[in-house]
Design goal:
The structure is a homodimer. Chain A is of the alpha+beta class and about 350 residues long. Chain A has twelve helices and twelve strands. The first copy, chain A, is about 40% helix and about 20% strand.
Amino acid sequence: MERVALSVDDVRELTRAALARHGCDDENAAAVAEVVTAAERDGCPSHGLFRVPGYVAALKSGKVNGKAQPSVDRLAAGVLKVDGHGGFAPLALRCGRAPLVDLARAQGIAAEVLTDIYHFAALWTELEPIAEQGIAVFAFTSYLPSVAPAGAKRAFFGTNPMAFGWPRGSHPPMVFDQASAAMARGEIQIAARDGHPVRAGAGIDADGNPTTDPASILGGAQLPFGGYKGSAIALMVELLAGGLIGEAFAFEAAQQDNKDGGPPRGGELLIALDPMHFGDRERWHAHSERFFTELCGLDGVRLPADRRHANRQSSLSGGVQVPAPLVDEVRGLAGLPPRA
Amino acid sequence: MERVALSVDDVRELTRAALARHGCDDENAAAVAEVVTAAERDGCPSHGLFRVPGYVAALKSGKVNGKAQPSVDRLAAGVLKVDGHGGFAPLALRCGRAPLVDLARAQGIAAEVLTDIYHFAALWTELEPIAEQGIAVFAFTSYLPSVAPAGAKRAFFGTNPMAFGWPRGSHPPMVFDQASAAMARGEIQIAARDGHPVRAGAGIDADGNPTTDPASILGGAQLPFGGYKGSAIALMVELLAGGLIGEAFAFEAAQQDNKDGGPPRGGELLIALDPMHFGDRERWHAHSERFFTELCGLDGVRLPADRRHANRQSSLSGGVQVPAPLVDEVRGLAGLPPRA
């Protein structure tokens, strides 16, 4: 497929323009464009420009309010709530960030509930700026039914990513962000678009038979990673991002969704911990860095975010390569003519 | 192998006697006996009487103080610390339980750090009594180096279980407890004892080659579940149960350990959340139960703890079957003659 070189700034501006043209105000367009741009920049195209048509579809259908103004409340001494008021998740997350960091610093541990948001982004973009402030942080969110519980033959759990970030001082934070599915749904969608098979174990077809055909998996079910253990994590994520906080479970999100191809309604839970309050104020950083030194000294080991950071360096200097039809599609959504 | 029927009370009394004879005071012996008994009762023999020789070895070598009196302190508004003062974990966990539940109820979310403990038990025994009080709870603890990080060929991470409990009112709580290893180390040890191979993917030998021989894996390394995703969870557990709280990482625990076969020194982190403070006070329970009804309505699905609860019912009425040599070994440790 022909690819087009875009600078990171091009990606951001194109995304903002497409969103603004379909009803996002400046703040919402900027917040969404930031996570789309971060994904392209860091080599995660399945959360990059590839998502823009879905974001726009959700604006056009009226499912998502592009002018939503999130509000932040305190539910308990250690618990904050951000009500997204029907907007995309990124602005709600941005509004909740400083209050969560402040509360973790005051309490040692704090939780943040996000409700009435439409989530379509990678979680690591949300956790990096928190971990960069010296705070360890978890995130949990669900999605439309995509993954068959261990033993079952049809999709019930969302892709249900869980992410964790750990502060590393002058190093970039260690952040992993992993779906409970064996393979990220966005990667399967991209394989379907590009006509590639996916690896065995990624999913089953609508009859419950194993397949490597991405389209059959998208019409059937993804499988959890690591069998029943990944399935248990998917279950946990549903309970945290749905049951605990009063938001939609994946099966409920599907019942409510208008199937416009954009993100479903859902919730998210963040848990933030300040290592300065866990009994090892003086030593925790040096102690943990010694652990990373030992770990990274093993042959064959790389940290979860290593590839992202390497991609980031090259993208910031040399730009990113985006499939030409996608660039033209997003240009069209932004009201721009196709490339000359 | 010949097996002997014991009642659940027999298991408890035998364990208490063996521990008391080697220097545990009544409280410590009772707390350890409780977790050993729960494991036998619920069909998890790898954490049952099988562990008693190790507990005793740690008392005999002087590594663990059988008369330790844990102390509970508050580190921050939302953070408690239990110092185990060099004792086995179960009494420290018991002492910390009510304060943690109370703090979660007051704050919405609370963490508990446990340090200077020697942990050799299943985590679900710790979380059930918390979840039964209406509190959702996570636990993380590490262990001696056992698992090769994804890509590496030697053990570095501990088995590093992560557990999660969810309150279900009149139902038993949903509790899962899973090692970051593809297979529980205790199961591999039991397979080695009994001369059975283990399933492919459980581990590698000392040269880094895949093997199904349990003894070779114990001399080599276990593999993480689900490849790099399980490896990321093992990494997270090290950071939470070691780096965050100022306790030993697995590689440090190995450097400190006297290799008496008992539990290593380590730490544990609990995080407790009270669903009454997360924005859905009225509805969270019924809403989550509707989710369980949907989930359990799928063909082939069972909840993580279903097998444990089924075993529990049969053990309480019909007792448990324990290998005869193990019963005689523990009887010997308790100062009793072999069975007639």
